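Anyone? Bumping this.
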Amino acid sequence: MSRVTFFTGFKKAVPIMLGYTPLGLAFGVIAREKGLTVLQTALMSLTSFSGSGQFITVGMLGVGASIPAILLTNLLVNSRYLLFSASMAPHVKKMPSWIQAILAFGITDETFTLNMVEFEKRGGDRDFMLGVNIFSHLSWIASSTVGAAVGNLIPDINRYGVNFALPAMFIALLAMQVKNRTTLWVSALAGAVSLGVYMQIQNGSHIIIATIAAASIGVILCPCRRKSM
Amino acid sequence: MSLQTKIYVVIFGLWLANYLPRMLPMVVLSKIKMPEPVIRWLGFVPAAVLAAIIVPSVLMPESRLLISFNNNYLLSSIPAFVVAFKTRSLVWTLVVGMAAMALLQLL
């Protein structure tokens, strides 16, 4: 274990930690509003480490969605991790499976992006990746726990625009995902279908229906070259 | 089932729904090749799911369609989109989007 490399990972993770802090605070506050205890909020941030999925989950819990609907929506929202994980695989090929299994736990949109950039410089480095993942995760757990603990002390936190934290995060992530005209059209289609369905049925299924429809139409209609990803 | 039990079941399920998609491809699929259409389908999912979440949450903030200057979510999303596509930065998009929302609520 190289301590120097581990802390190089930490230094590179500082911007991620700064980004997670307001988001984690906002998540903690909202989780508490929707009926989670401080302990449950901390536990969820420890075991899931998924900003988007956790926000959606507490939102759906708040409107009384069913457990299968919540988990299915999460699987869809998290399906991007399949891609992240698969595209990291070649870089960690030489490591034992149990190390891969630990490193995979820390994959998020942000740690993935950072680690992929570093792969080009230093190759797949276990200690560097651990440094990035662990400190990013710690900041997420800490900020969401603090948010849950002190949220009710701050009167009307939405005054500070916290109610827009989640849409803003999704908009930023979407911008990172829209790399070409095809993904732009698929996104527009998904948004339109989602809106149309949500105007009729409001049980959380609009996200699932729109995603499956838009991604499938994208595959069918897109005359993509092979390996165009 | 009580709400407390439901919350713990959801937390456990969420752990699986988060960990398996992150772990399985790295550990298992690094040895197998996925079929091309599956890879392409997965390639569209992130953008599609994000758009599917954003559009209703911005256009129907209180579960009704509201396309007007009274919709702070819609108005805040405009600078957020501009900054997101210009900078591709999570932090800046958050700062600008939340500041826009805070300002609009003051008006």
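Late reply, but here is one note on the structure posted above: Chain B touches chain A through 73 residues (CB under 8 Å).
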